[in-house]
Amino acid sequence: MKKIKKIPLRKCVVTNERFEKKQLIRIVKTPEGTVLVDFSGKANGRGAYLQKNKEVILKAQKTKVLERHLEVQIPDSIYLELLKVADTLE
Description:
This protein has 90 residues and is α+β, with helices and mostly antiparallel strands. It has 3 helices and 5 strands. Helix content is 33%, strand content 24%.
């Protein structure tokens, strides 16, 4: 009998829905305190996940949900990068 591999689920911090990791974008606060978009999903630091969706990213920016989760000021450049990623997927 073949063992079924468990797919790791992560929660979008805006919608609170669970998705497979590859359906989400990870934003990381590194131990040095810088914020970056983690495309590998393996960067060191505290991470938060967002759906790859324009409305969700804009809502995250408006409600400052990422700032609360990562406890750091999020520069606009991060949101612009996230929106570019969302654009390439649509």
